[in-house]
Amino acid sequence: MTHLVEVRENLQISRILQEIGEIHAIRGELFRSRAYLKAARNILTLTENLRQMHEEGKLQTIPGIGRGISEIIEEFLASGDVKYLKDLRASLPPGVHELTALEGIGPKIAFKLSQELGVESIEQLETAARTGKIQSLKGFSSKSEENVLKAIERHRKTLQHRLLLGQVLWLIEEIRDHLADCRYILKVEAAGSARRMCETVGDLDILVASAHPEKAIKHFASMPQITRILSKGTTRSSVVFGGSFQVDIRVVSAESFGAALQYFTGSKDHNIKLRTLAVKQGYKLSEYGLFRRKDDTKAAGETEESVYHNLGLPYICPELREDRGEIEAAVAGELPELISLEDVQGDLHVHSDWSDGTATLREIAEAALSLGLAYVAICDHTRSLGIARGLDEERLKKQTLEIDKLNKGFEEFRLLKGVEANIMSDGNLDISNHALKELDLVVASVHSGFKGDEEKLTNRILSAINHENVSIIGHPTGRLIQRRQPLPIDFDKVFSTAAEQNVLLEINAFPNRLDLNDVNSRAAQERGVKMAIGTDAHAVNQLGYLDLGVAVARRGWITPKNVVNTLDVAQLVKQLHQ
Ligand code: DGT
Ligand code: CA
Ligand code: CA
Ligand code: ZN
After folding, report:
1. pLDDT digit string, tens, across residues 415-470
2. Which protein residue's CA is at the shortest distance from atom 24 of ligand 1?
3. pLDDT tens, position by position, 320-365
4. Which residue among 217, 222, 265, 367 is least packed, with the fewest CB closer than 10 Å?
5. Which tens digits make up the pLDDT trace of 265-321?
């Protein structure tokens, strides 16, 4: 599992081409714009790493990528920068980028507003709207003015929105890449909720070690993705990325970096308990270090480990720092051995172009191989999900024959024959038993009929667990983060039945699902339930979401032996047929 960085690189390049395309559209260069937007889209669904394709001289074999675009890709791969994009950005009037963050304001309108009214920020646009300047423009009315004001209001509300962890991890990579270019910066870590791998992040806290704080801050504040600077001091700064997400940066000395990292990682409750423990042992713990009370000398601070060790504790992983018993467990020497990404050998929930995924079976296998995985379970939707081109028995049969054929060509890799069947409102599955019997594994999930009381919904899940062919319950609570509440199910019954029937509960790793979540996985483990991590990927790049599934498991105190993805393929198949 060492190639996630390269998968991210594809995404990064796709975003650069996307932005170039958008700026060309603003400038009215529609033909060019389309070419870049198309290239950006094609790269998103690419199965190979661009870096590798570049090394093999194959960039121009990608549809929509000619010499010009391949040169841009090469420049990015070599230097991490694209001068063409920088120049394009500089060619736009200030503020245009910020205005496009508003709903209903595309690049073209933003450009027009900035040209004709001279507005350079959302605030100035608001003033223009309130003073009737927008309706006086040709092609605009008092209605458009109202719409602009509403969009600004909605934008301010989403400003307080939390981002999904998956989105933030991505942003952290970009910030790291940028800060890596500054020779005054010695260390960079993301702290706060992002480091604890919380499912959503309110603001991102970046911690930097440097002996020249002002230079470090200046370098950070020059990131082109920053749309607004809220404050900029000598050792700290707060800025807004992409029009809505706040990032706080703090610069400390290398000697107190560990103590600062410990402090700003939180959680607040974990820190409070740790400080109390420090006081009991005659210390004072702050963001500057761990100090002996009697003479105020420093006992630790350069590394986080040194802080914990001097308090007589083993290192406590950031994912555990929620004051959910981790300090007590550390004192007792009973911290769990957490699962890690390296333990994971395969992905147990992936969609192909046989239903609503975008990749072919072969493309999925190749992408998984390049990620270092040993197996992937193909789990396409079944027929009652019409919109997702769900499979009936006949197409499922054809798919399994295709998988058998492909598997003959692999030496140390296997596509597992699976399906994601729907749990109907009566608790039955929408596909016949004889079709399911032929498969390596069956994921059963609720995709419709979310209304109903706890008893009814619990019974639906229980009958799926009791179904003779079901191996895994997919995204067990059905929640979508910030969009749909979890189903009200009786976990007590679900856990005891799953443990009894040897049915696995999924930790779905898709960024807006993370279902089971940390708390529920931990409860499941305590009840003897084993879990399966599945990315629910619908495109090859999404196989990289495995790290989010692992993060949930780690926050849930889950050990490797309770996650079947840590088994090799032979052990796994055996376990699935128990
Ligand atoms: P978020 O941003 O809402 O997702 O959550 P956090 O945990 O990142 O919270 P944030 O950004 O307010 O603060 C970052 C860390 O800084 C927090 O986890 C612990 C530390 N911290 C902040 N304020 C306090 C405080 O008043 N007391 C203590 N002990 N720690 C604090
Ligand atoms: Ca934060
Ligand atoms: Ca913060
Ligand atoms: Zn599903």
Report:
1. 999 999 999 999 999 999 999 999 999 999 999 888 888 999 999 999 999 999 99
2. 268
3. 999 999 999 999 999 999 999 999 999 999 999 999 899 999 999 9
4. 222
5. 999 999 999 999 999 999 999 999 999 999 999 999 999 999 999 999 999 999 999
Token output for 206: 């970046």
Determine the average pLDDT of the residues in 486-511: 97
Q: Answer for the pair 558, 378: CB distance below 8 angstroms, yes or no.
A: no
Q: Among 262, 267, 268, which residue has the most ligand 1 atoms within 8 Å of its CB, making it the best to mutate?
A: 268
Mutation test of ligand 1: which of 164, 167, 193 has the most ligand atoms closer than 8 Å to its C-beta?
Answer: 193
Measured distance CA(232)–CA(248) in Å, rounded: 10
pLDDT of residue 506: 98
Is the dihedral angle over the CA atoms 402, 404, 407, 413 positive or is it negative? positive
Q: Are 138 and 521 in contact (CB under 8 A)?
A: no
pLDDT computed for residue 555 by the predictor? 98
| Closest C-alpha among 220, 163, 218, 212 to residue 192 | 163
* pLDDT tens per residue across span 238-263: 999 876 789 999 999 999 999 999 99
The CATH classification of domain 163-252, taken from the options 3.30.460.10, 3.40.50.300, 3.40.250.10, 1.10.357.20: 3.30.460.10
Place of tokens 């714009």: 33
Would you say domain 268-331 falls under CATH 3.30.210.10? yes
Count of alpha carbons within 13 Å of 392, Cβ hemisphere only? Answer: 2
Considering the four listed CATH numbers 1.10.10.60, 3.90.180.10, 1.10.3720.10, 1.10.150.110, the one that applies to the domain covering 7-158 is 1.10.150.110
Note the pLDDT of residue 452. Answer: 82
Neighbour count for residue 394 (Cβ, 10 Å): 10
Going from the Cα of 526 to the center of ligand 1, the distance in angstroms, rounded, reads: 29
Say if residues 541 and 44 touch (Cβ distance below 8 Å).
yes
CA of 318 to the centre of ligand 3 (A): 16
